[in-house]
């Protein structure tokens, strides 16, 4: 009896020992798996997430989000919307907002978000190194990611580019009923006006706006691409557009857009005076951010050379990082002088610009 009892005890001990070894083996495999990489060298670790509100809707951006996640293991949750609606949403959500980052087009909108206390300061040596001072907020609450020039597009067969070398030339008697441009509600035009106020004074801005209204070929409607198409169609001879629209038209899969763009040339205005107007798409860390460390990593990633090259090559925007050359198409348009002002001033003069546009009857 005693022998049978001892044998039973030994069997129970053996089973328990084998079970423990099996559990240790499973735990070791799980631990090793969480730190391994897959065949494509993509990180499998779950290193957290960030929540991004963005007014940009480009395939380029989607590819960059994926690359960032592959490199860091940080998931990018994207909420897209219209720029001003996203600002309103951030304001409505307040501190409870899950948004960590806000991306929008135009320094005027970034200033709008900052002035409503929706963004917070970011101290990053890498961002300061990669993004020149003129393309970032004076208090480091937003940073430029890409830049675009606001240029004059003209029909090659109907306009001599030597006669439209400045923004002021658009207001001459010779260009009456020839100018196509977006509405006064468009932030790009508001910022263009704000730059005139900052560099040349309010009186000049008023005179220019009055002259443009006098010379409009039609009431403003549509976006920048629509203005370019209308020039090709003969509704006007001259349009004011951002450069990346022109680049996207030339590289469109729609042959009609390509054909329209090929009928146009562009002029970088004011090369002998104040320079051509420049604006940006930019990013800010929200005041409500719950994932601040990961969010700053993402901001820094977008300022690096790889991301800057991709913005330029696929969306035809100029890099803000001075170590990155523009895409070949952009370089083919030539070098140009930029307006010399910190883009924060575009937001600071936005209200004055809107008042002038309304005063002169710009619809």
Overview in brief:
This protein has 363 residues and is of the alpha/beta class. The protein has helices at 2-33, 59-72, 83-93, 107-115, 125-130, 187-200, 202-215, 224-232, 243-250, 255-262, 292-303, 305-315, 328-332, 344-348, 350-359, and strands spanning 49-54, 75-80, 101-105, 119-120, 143-155, 179-180, 238-242, 264-267, 278-286, 318-319.
Topology diagram in text:
Elements: H1 2-33, E1 49-54, H2 59-72, E2 75-80, H3 83-93, E3 101-105, H4 107-115, E4 119-120, H5 125-130, E5 143-155, E6 179-180, H6 187-200, H7 202-215, H8 224-232, E7 238-242, H9 243-250, H10 255-262, E8 264-267, E9 278-286, H11 292-303, H12 305-315, E10 318-319, H13 328-332, H14 344-348, H15 350-359
Parallel strand pairs: 1-2, 1-3, 6-7
Antiparallel strand pairs: 3-9, 4-9, 5-7, 5-8, 5-9, 5-10
Helix pairs in contact: 6-7, 6-15, 7-15
Pfam families: SBP_bac_8
Family: Belongs to the bacterial solute-binding protein 1 family.
Biased composition (Acidic residues): 37-46
What does this 3D model show about the protein?
The protein is of the alpha/beta class and 363 residues long. It folds into 2 domains: 49-146 and 280-326, 3-Layer(aba) Sandwich (D-Maltodextrin-Binding Protein, domain 2); 148-277 and 343-359, Periplasmic binding protein-like II (D-Maltodextrin-Binding Protein, domain 2), CATH 3.40.190. Helix content is 46%, strand content 15%. The chain is built from 15 helices and 10 strands. It has helices at 2-33, 59-72, 83-93, 107-115, 125-130, 187-200, 202-215, 224-232, 243-250, 255-262, 292-303, 305-315, 328-332, 344-348, 350-359; strands at residues 49-54, 75-80, 101-105, 119-120, 143-155, 179-180, 238-242, 264-267, 278-286, 318-319. Strands 1, 2, 3, 4, 5, 6, 7, 8, 9 and 10 form a 10-stranded mixed sheet that branches. Helix 6 packs across helix 7 (202-215). The longest helix has 32 residues, at 2-33. The protein is globular. The protein starts with a helix and ends with a helix. Mean pLDDT is 90; it is low at 1-44. Belongs to the bacterial solute-binding protein 1 family. Residues 1-19 form the signal peptide. Residues 37-46 have a biased composition (Acidic residues). This is Fe(3+) ABC transporter substrate-binding protein. Pfam families: SBP_bac_8.
């Amino acid at each position: 009896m005693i022998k049978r009892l001892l044998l039973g005890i030994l069997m129970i001990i053996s089973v328990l020992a084998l079970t423990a070894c099996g559990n240790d083996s499973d735990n070791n495999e799980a631990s090793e798996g969480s730190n391994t990489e897959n065949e494509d060298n993509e990180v499998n670790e779950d290193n957290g997430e960030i929540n991004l509100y963005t007014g940009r809707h480009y395939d380029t951006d989607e590819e960059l989000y994926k690359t960032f996640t592959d490199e860091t293991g940080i998931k990018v949750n994207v909420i897209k919307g219209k720029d001003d609606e996203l600002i309103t949403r951030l304001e409505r959500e307040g501190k409870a907002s899950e948004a960590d980052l806000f991306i929008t087009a135009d320094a005027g909108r970034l200033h709008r978000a900052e002035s409503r206390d929706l963004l917070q300061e970011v101290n990053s040596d890498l961002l300061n190194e990669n993004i020149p001072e003129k393309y970032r907020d004076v208090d480091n609450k937003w940073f430029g990611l890409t830049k675009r020039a606001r240029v004059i597009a003209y029909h090659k067969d109907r306009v001599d580019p030597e006669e439209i070398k400045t923004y002021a030339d658009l207001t001459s008697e010779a260009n009456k009923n020839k100018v196509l441009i977006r509405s006064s509600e468009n932030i790009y035009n508001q910022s263009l006006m704000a730059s005139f106020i900052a560099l040349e004074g309010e009186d000049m801005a008023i005179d220019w706006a009055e002259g443009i209204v006098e010379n409009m070929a039609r009431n403003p409607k549509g976006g920048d691409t629509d203005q370019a198409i209308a020039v090709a169609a003969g509704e006007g001879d001259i349009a004011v557009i951002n450069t990346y629209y022109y680049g996207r038209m030339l590289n469109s899969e729609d042959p009609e857009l390509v054909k329209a763009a090929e009928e146009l040339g562009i002029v970088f205005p004011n090369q002998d005076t104040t320079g051509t107007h420049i604006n940006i798409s930019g990013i800010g860390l929200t005041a409500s951010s719950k994932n601040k460390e990961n969010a700053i990593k993402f901001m820094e990633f977008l300022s690096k050379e790889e991301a800057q090259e991709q913005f330029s090559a696929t969306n035809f925007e100029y890099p803000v990082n001075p170590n990155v050359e523009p895409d070949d198409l952009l370089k083919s348009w030539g070098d140009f002088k930029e307006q010399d002002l910190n883009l924060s001033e575009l937001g600071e003069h936005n209200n004055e610009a809107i008042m002038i546009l309304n005063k002169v009857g710009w619809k």
